[in-house]
Design a protein that fits this description.
Layout lengths: L1 H30 L1 H6 L3 H19 L5 H6 L12 H19 L5 H19 L12 H22 L8 H32 L1 H45 L7 H11 L9 E7 L5 H10 L6 E4 L5 E5 L7 E5 L11 H15 L5 E7 L6 H15 L8 E7 L22 H17 L6 E3 L11 H10 L1 H16 L4 H21 L4
Parallel strand pairs: 1-4, 1-5, 5-6, 6-7
Antiparallel strand pairs: 2-3, 3-4
Bound molecules: guanosine-5'-triphosphate (GTP) and magnesium ion (MG).
Length: 516
C-alpha cells in the first residue's frame, strides 16, 4: 500500500502522460471512429484529445523544482569497508552525482571534465595536506584501477547489452554505412507515406500524427531519465575507483596478501586474523578472560610473547572465528613522578597499542571502582583514533569481571536475569555494568558481566562470544585495512628486490635481445 502510494507520488506525471495517450484510443476501440463520426461526436472526441494533450504537456513542466525533489534518485550508500575519511569523500561526491544525473555530459570533453572534477574532490578529501593531491598515486596503482574499471565494464556489457558478445564492430560499421548510403531514401519514403495517408483517410492520419507527437514527448522524457541514471551509475563507478585509488587500496592485492598469510601459516584459514587486545588494570582479570575464551575451544593454541611483553594466542577452532588474543600487561603500574613523565608514558602506550588490534576488550573489575587510569588511557586511545579518519578504528567492548564478588557476597547461583533483576545479586551486577558503561563506554558499546571463580566454570562467556561475533564483520574490515596499511609503507627490502630484478631484465635486454 505504502509502496504503491510512494510510486504514485513519484511517477504521477508519467502516469498522466500515459493515460492521456492511452485513454482516447481505448475510447476508440469501444465506440469506433465510424460511430463517433455518425453521431457527430468526432469533434467532441477531438476536443477531448486536445484537452488531454494539454494536460500531458502540463505534466511535463517542472513546477518550482518539486519534480526534481520527488524524482531524485536516493543516494547510493558508501562501501562498508571504507574508512571514515573515504566515506566523507563519497558524501562530498554526492552533489556531483546529482548534477550529472540531472544534466548528463553531452560530449567527450564534458565527460573528461566531470571525471577530473570527481578525482579532485576525492583527492582533496583524502589528502588535504598534499600540495598536489590529485597526483597522490603510483603508476602501478593507476594501472590496477584501470584494470578493475575495464574489467567491470566488460562484465556489465556481457551481462546487460544484448548481442554484445556476438555483434562485431565491423557489423556495426556496415550497418552505419548502409544507413548513411540509404538513410535519405528511407526517410523520404516515410515522409511520402505520411502525406499519402492524409489523402486516403484524413481523420486517421491526423490521429496518427498526434499520437506520434505525444508518444515522442513521452519517450524522449523517459529516454532522458534513463540517460541521466546511466550517467550517474557510470559516475558512481568512477568515483569508487577514485576513492580506492587515493585511499591506496590498489597498492596491495587482497589475493596477494592472503597468499602471504597462507605461506606464513599453512594450517591457518586464508584470511587476515582479527586481533583482539585485552586492556585493563592489574588484576582486572585479563589473563583469566583470555583463558576462559581459549578454554572453550578444543584445538591447541599457539602462544607467542611479543617484544612489548604481551602474550599473543592464536585461537583456531571449528565453529569459532580465527582470532589472535593479545593479553597485555596491566595498567596503573606507572608511578611517574611528574605529570609530564606520565603524559609521555601515556603517549608511548597509545602509540604502541592504538593500531595494533581490530577489537578492544576493556576489562574492568566490578570490585575495583577506581577507574581513573582506565578512563584516561581509553580516552587517549579514542583521541588518537579520532585524529586518523583515514584508518579504520577498532571497536570497543567492555567486560565487567568479578561479578561473583558483588554483594550479597555469599550468594552465587547463576544464571541471573539481569533485565528482571529479581535478586539482590542480579541488581548488583546490573548496577556494576551501568557504572562501567558510564565511566568508560560510548552509547553503542556493549558491556558484558563475567565471573571466573577459580576452580569453577566461567559464567556468561557465551554472552561475550555473542558480543564479539556481533562486532566481527567490522573487525574483519579493520584487520584487512590494517594489513593493507602496513603493506603500503615504504620498505627498503622491497626496493632492493626491485633493483635486482630490474637490473637482471636490463642485462638480458642488452646481451640477448627482447625475445630472450
Ligand atoms: N572470583 C573471581 N576471581 C577472578 C575473576 N577474574 C579473575 N579473578 C582472579 O583475579 C586474579 C587476577 O586475575 P588475572 O586474570 O591474572 O588478572 P590480570 O588482569 O591478567 O592481571 P595482570 O596480568 O597482573 O595485569 C586471579 O587470582 C584470578 O583468579 C572473577 O571473575 N571472579
Ligand atoms: Mg595477566
Amino acid at each position: 500500500m505504502t509502496l504503491g502510494r510512494s510510486l504514485l507520488r513519484r511517477h504521477w506525471r508519467l502516469l498522466v502522460r500515459l493515460l492521456a495517450i492511452v485513454v482516447p484510443f481505448l475510447g476508440l476501440a469501444g465506440l469506433g471512429l465510424w460511430h463517433l463520426y455518425l453521431d457527430d461526436a468526432l469533434l467532441i472526441w477531438f476536443a477531448a484529445l486536445a484537452a488531454l494533450a494539454v494536460i500531458a504537456w502540463l505534466a511535463t513542466l517542472d513546477w518550482s523544482g518539486e519534480r526534481a525533489l520527488q524524482e531524485a534518485t536516493p543516494p547510493t550508500p558508501a562501501k562498508p569497508e571504507w574508512t571514515p575519511l573515504e566515506q566523507q569523500a563519497w558524501a562530498d561526491l554526492t552533489a556531483d552525482f546529482e548534477a550529472i544525473e540531472s544534466s548528463p555530459p553531452a560530449s567527450i570533453e564534458e565527460v573528461r571534465l566531470a571525471a577530473m572534477r570527481m578525482m579532485e574532490t576525492a583527492a582533496r578529501r583524502l589528502h588535504p595536506d598534499a600540495s598536489v593531491p590529485t597526483a597522490r598515486f603510483t603508476v602501478p596503482d593507476v594501472l590496477r584501477a584501470a584494470e578493475r574499471g575495464l574489467g567491470d565494464l566488460r562484465r556489465q556489457m556481457v551481462q546487460r547489452v544484448p548481442g554484445a558478445t556476438a555483434v562485431r564492430v565491423s557489423d556495426l560499421l556496415a550497418v552505419h554505412g548502409h544507413y548513411r548510403r540509404h538513410g535519405g531514401w528511407l526517410r523520404g519514403a516515410w515522409y511520402l507515406w505520411r502525406v499519402a495517408r492524409f489523402g486516403m483517410n484524413p481523420p486517421q492520419a491526423a490521429l496518427q500524427e498526434l499520437r506520434g507527437v505525444l508518444e515522442g514527448g513521452a519517450t524522449s522524457a523517459a529516454w532522458q531519465r534513463v540517460h541521466g541514471q546511466f550517467a550517474r551509475a557510470m559516475a558512481e563507478e568512477f568515483a569508487r575507483l577514485a576513492i580506492d585509488l587515493y585511499g591506496r587500496r590498489f597498492s596491495v592485492e587482497v589475493e596477494q596478501l592472503q597468499a602471504e598469510i597462507i605461506e606464513a601459516a599453512p594450517e591457518a584459514p586464508p584470511e587476515v586474523p582479527v586481533r583482539v587486545s585485552f586492556f585493563g588494570q592489574v588484576n582486572a582479570g585479563k589473563s583469566s578472560l583470555v583463558n576462559a575464551l581459549l578454554g572453550e575451544v578444543q584445538a591447541p593454541v599457539s602462544e607467542r610473547r611479543t617484544p612489548a611483553g604481551e602474550t599473543e594466542f592464536r585461537l583456531q577452532s571449528e565453529g569459532r572465528p580465527d582470532l589472535v588474543l593479545i593479553d597485555t600487561a596491566g595498567l596503573g603500574t606507572d608511578v611517574s613522578p611528574t605529570a609530564e613523565a606520565r603524559a609521555a608514558s601515556d603517549a608511548r602506550w597509545v602509540a604502541a597499542n592504538a593500531w595494533a588490534c581490530d577489537l578492544v576488550v576493556w576489562v574492568a573489575s566490578a570490585i575495583q571502582p577506581a577507574r581513573e587510569d582506565d578512563h584516561r588511557l581509553l580516552s587517549a586511545l579514542r583521541i588518537e583514533w579520532a585524529t586518523h579518519p583515514e584508518r579504520r578504528t577498532p571497536r570497543v567492548l567492555c567486560v565487567v569481571t568479578h561479578a561473583d564478588r558483588l554483594s550479597p557476597m555469599r550468594e552465587w547461583q547463576p544464571p541471573y536475569d539481569l533485565d528482571g533483576a529479581a535478586s539482590g545479586k542480579a541488581a548488583s551486577i546490573r548496577d556494576a555494568c551501568r557504572a562501567v558503561a558510564t565511566d568508560l563506554c560510548e552509547s553503542d558499546e556493549p558491556v558484558v558481566p563475567i565471573a571466573m571463580r577459580p576452580g569453577t566454570a566461567p559464567y556468561n562467556v557465551d554472552a561475550l562470544w555473542l558480543a564479539i561475533s556481533e562486532g566481527l564483520d567490522a573487525a574483519r574490515q579493520s584487520a584487512l585495512h590494517r594489513a593493507l596499511f602496513d603493506r603500503t609503507r615504504f620498505k627498503w627490502g622491497e626496493v632492493a628486490r626491485q633493483v635486482g630484478q630490474g637490473s637482471r631484465y636490463l642485462g638480458k635486454l642488452m646481451f640477448k635481445g627482447v625475445g630472450a
